[in-house]
Fold this sequence. Notes:
This is Response regulator. By secondary structure, this protein is an alpha/beta fold.
Amino acid sequence: MKTCLVVDDSSIVRKVARRIVEALGFQVIEAEDGVEALVHCKKAMPEAILLDWNMPVMDGFQFLGTLRRMPGGDEPMVVFCTTETGIDHITKAMGGGANEYIMKPFDKDIVMAKFQEVGLIALDEQTAA
């Protein structure tokens, strides 16, 4: 089973994301900031990371840069999921190594579409979700 690391300082957002991502067939691990997320990645690199931008301790962009420099850190598909809707943030995220970008609020259809776009789930898997 593929693993998705959900990184967000909001427990409500993590809970909603967990339900959506589990329905797509992923095992979910949660982290409330970038430092905690890095600890999980050092233990076992997930296939997918749903990543918030604005978090205490270490924000999503700092986490992304650190992740991409780690051994195996180029492998996870990273989808930013944030309230930062400006083109400058989107450009910075994609240039920094993100694979996709979702704006909050999000729903199952949006997450499923982005996961399909980056190859995390196949088109035929949407009927099972």
